[in-house]
Design goal:
single chain, TIM Barrel, 3 domains, 9-stranded parallel β-sheet, 9 strands, binds iron/sulfur cluster
Length: 469
């Protein structure tokens, strides 16, 4: 029985409720009056239910679809301005005891070299990432209690935060590791992690069980309830995600929004981020074997629907996608991008593409991605201020909903971009960036904030670092 407040996965992601939602969406995909009413509600920027958003996703009326895209663009512009938060993944270990059929790290893959970074190798990787200009990492590791126990992850986080190479520092470590216990989430919280990210992969229980035939991850309920345990442990920024292509995308979309509604209903705060990976080629993995792949147009519509349904939730797209797709998605709602990424263990210091978790479609350097964004009027931001100022969970969401967060985001983005330009950018990128910062100053609404910002920008020029609003 569907119950968003239930602690049980099968009740807050109720299969029958999803089937009913899809039938409702099909029945109303041409219902202009209903679709207009849903779009009117979305215009108030208070979000949509999974049923309402599913109707928009199914909508077959071209003029209403155009209104949806325009609204997604507007909400993106209102809440996130031109800013795009930059991050990079750091793969610690590809040892894994699970049997996920879509991932080359699955236990039975014997062609892939297994590797786990030592603390010294992590240092080298982090120095390489700092030398690129990164300040925010997403830590990735397979699940293996012998090779990658929690103690290893905790020690690695400590190592990462301790490295200060030249002007570099990693200021926020987000963590994407397997579902674990409340006690272990507490220890991750104490280690100072930012967001705990765990992809559901698919919300369809039957498919989930087929795709995860062996290993601890095969337990659907334990996996789906992981964010609850993380929140119980005090981690109040959690990230959701689906691997689009495994199941029917409309099913996943409804499940994803129901999961967000569940977190909101129980903890008063929805997911901090939603990631939208699509299945892509890798060693031992052929995406053609999964017959639910989605086209670029469908993908764009999905992103637009997520944007209007959960306006306050950050949306992440990785280098799985090509520059052209990333550009399209940025306009429609994506707020965070990875850049200069390597998806193999040790890939920032010694390219070993055979250990990559997936093939990259965007192989540009961070400098190239930053310049590309700025040439399109976007502001690459290396800001990590909220987490470090204790603005997380419901405190963060309250600031977002009142719009007050925007008083911090733009100045912080410009200051961190200035640091990047001085410390890491090529001359060409620096020229484009300095012009962008100068042009954006007039978009700071408050006189007082602008003068503090100007003062801090000159202090950064003089060699000082790490200011924040
Ligand atoms: S998706 Fe994660 S848990 Fe599954 S095989 Fe890959 S690394 Fe292991
Ligand atoms: S001020 Fe907060 S919300 Fe804004 S970019 Fe920085 S960390 Fe993100």
């Amino acid at each position: 029985m569907y119950n968003p407040r239930s602690p049980k996965a099968e009740e807050f992601i109720d299969h029958q409720e999803i089937l009913d939602t899809l039938a409702y969406a099909d029945a109303n995909c041409g219902n202009a009056a209903l679709i207009d009413a849903i779009l009117d509600k979305a215009e108030q920027r208070k979000g949509l239910t999974h049923r309402e958003a599913s109707v928009l996703l199914a909508c077959r009326l071209e003029d209403r679809n155009q209104r949806l895209y325009a609204l997604a663009k507007q909400i993106k512009a209102d809440f996130y301005g031109d800013r795009i938060v930059m991050f990079a993944p750091l793969y610690l270990s590809n040892y894994c005891v699970n049997g996920c059929l879509y991932c080359p790290y699955h236990k039975k893959n014997t062609h892939i070299p297994r590797k786990k970074l030592t603390q010294e190798e992590i240092r080298q990787e982090v120095i390489a990432l700092q030398d690129m200009g990164h300040k925010r990492l997403a830590l990735e590791a397979g699940e293996d209690p012998v090779n990658n126990p929690l103690e290893y992850i905790l020690e690695s986080i400590q190592t990462i935060y301790s490295i200060h190479h030249k002007n570099g520092a990693i200021r926020r470590v987000n963590v994407n590791i397997a579902a674990t216990t409340v006690e272990n989430y507490r220890r991750l919280k104490e280690a100072g992690i930012g967001t705990y990210i765990l992809f559901q992969e698919t919300y369809h229980k039957e498919s989930y069980e087929k795709l995860h035939p062996t290993g601890p991850k095969s337990n659907y309920a334990y996996h789906t309830e992981a964010h609850d345990r993380a929140m119980e442990a005090g981690i109040d920024d959690v990230g959701l995600g689906v691997l689009f292509g495994l199941e029917l995308y409309r099913y996943e979309f409804a499940g994803l929004l129901m999961h967000a509604e569940h977190l909101e209903a129980v903890y008063g705060v929805g997911p901090h981020t939603i990631s939208v990976p699509r299945i892509c080629p890798a060693e031992d993995i052929d995406p053609e074997e999964f017959d639910n792949g989605i086209s670029e147009d469908t993908f764009a519509k999905l992103v637009a629907c997520i944007r209007v349904a959960v306006p306050y939730t950050g949306m992440i797209v990785s280098t799985r996608e090509s520059p052209a797709v990333r550009e399209r998605l940025l306009e429609l709602g994506v707020s965070q991008l990875s850049g200069g990424s390597r998806t193999s263990v040790g890939g920032y210091t010694q390219p070993e593409e055979e250990t990559a978790q997936f093939d990259l479609s965007d192989r540009r350097t961070l400098d190239e991605v930053v310049r590309w964004l700025m040439e399109r009027g976007k502001i690459p931001s290396f800001c990590t201020a909220c987490y470090r100022e204790g603005r997380t969970g419901d405190r963060f969401m309250a600031l977002c909903k009142s719009g007050q967060i925007n008083n911090c985001c733009l100045p912080n983005a410009l200051m961190t971009l200035k640091e990047y330009l001085l410390d890491y950018a090529s001359e060409e990128t620096r020229t484009v960036g300095e012009a962008l910062i100068a042009a954006q100053l007039s978009n700071i609404p408050r006189e007082k904030t602008r003068s503090i910002l100007l003062e801090r920008l000159s202090q950064i020029e003089a060699g000082n670092r790490d200011f924040r609003f």
